[in-house]
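User: Teach me something about this protein's shape.
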Amino acid sequence: MLSLYIVSGKVTDVKKKRFYKYGRNLHHKPELIIEPVLIMAYNNREMKRIILPSLLACLLAATASLSCSMEPGPYRETIQSPIEGTLYIDLPTTVPYTFQEAGLYGDVQILVGKQEVTVDHSVIMYDFVQHRLEIPLSVTVNFDGVAVITCVSRLSYAEPITEEEAAEAGEEPGDEQSGGTDTPEEPVVEDEPAAEEEPADSTPIPYAGYLITSLTKDRTNRINDTDHNGSVSSLEEETMPLLPAVRFYTDPAETSPVRVDNAPVINLFDSLPRHTTPNLSTTISGAVSSLEWALVYARINNQYQWLETAQDLFIPDRVVFPEGEEDPFVIPLKPGINEIELIAVNSQGYTFSDIITVDCTAQLVAEKENILVTLTWDTLADLDLHTWYYLPEEKEFVWHNSYADKEAPDTDSLVNLDADNQTGFGPEHFTLLGAANGYYIIAVNAHSLAGLPAANAFVSIETNERLHSLGPFRITGESEDEYPVNNNLSWARITDIVITEGAAEILEPDMDLEPPEMFDPQPSLRAPPRSIKHMLKFR
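Assistant: First, the predicted structure itself:
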């Protein structure tokens, strides 16, 4: 039997009295009248695997681009960050190895920040060697910088009806029982095919995952480039780039997964202080219910931040954050109005919270540079943000800001480094208002990798003029501030900044300049020893 895919054109089904414009996978039958603009025929799997995905990816990209709201970016310019890649979902053991794509139903919901991309089952391919599904992703989003990508499967599988079974039932494979005569009637015009009804005995294909990554505008961001070296190897091309989300269960033995019937419900979302503060940071807390997985993150102005949540001990589908008062979730603020928004995702959809606005009354210093450096990362590792300052011209070292001396340069009442995040993901923020002319070095140290092989650091630097998004920087070693910094696997030199006449220039790191070991800070400024809880967690 010849199988046809109508990419463009229309197909009239005389028996069902309707026609479709495009995008329909069809068996060639006498009652179909085909009027194609562009048609593909295939009778072997290789043709389908190689050529069809390319055409469908183009169609998907065009559709996603049309649905994208291209509003101005953080500095009122139009930003377009293309994303390309392939996601993989392993099929559960309840799905047989005799899997046929004709038996797949539903779709995959992907969120990039706040933009939704729905991948229909008709463009998903089956990898019979790995017994998994291949999901193409092609979308353009209207921001650059640190992003959170989530993926939730709403797919299911049912064995398709065979030709013999269809013949016995008196219908073609995939057709419904007509229940009447085949007398042609006036066709009913539909722009798109009617939704296929999912069989009652279909098997769910559950999956949820997320990715914290950095997007760069005006170039293709390939999410399968997991080592971030600028190219996608054959191994990376076959590897799922997303991390699996934590699944929730209703029983301690984890045999009965949580199921929900509606989109997430945001029970609580608050900030302290809520409206106005002279400080350069605030803390947030909240609770979200109707969750099957831990998929909660936040938008802070035009950047996204993953939230580490804790499952409620008494309500299995509910999470809270922060986990305890000793680990508040700190949000950076820039002088002026700041927007904070919560985003929660499940298999039934997603929910955006009301936007919290916080007015930071800290004053920018006129005619001088004002800098906000934000560090985030993608694992439970403990990374630390470090900043060194040198006088102009002579490059004479003056001060070093880190968790051991958060108030350096100690020229005002600000705590320049807001937090020492020891439990994963970040953020940590270094703020300098009225930055002096001179030379600055920004670097990140992996105090602990939490037993993982690596962590990817993302750094954004906001100056008076623009936002610079840097990274990811892959760190594969760990040390407690081991020196030297250069050519050390536990450190990443992020960037150097030179400020001249109140204007900052972002530079590639000068590897001939070795940052000195930190001061032995004054006792009053020395950070307390890392907690016993932290040492036990990561030893």
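Now, about its shape. The chain has three domains: 53-158+201-244, 265-360, 369-538. Helices lie at 45-67, 163-169, 234-237, 532-538. If you'd like, I can walk through any region in more detail.
User: That's plenty for now, thanks!
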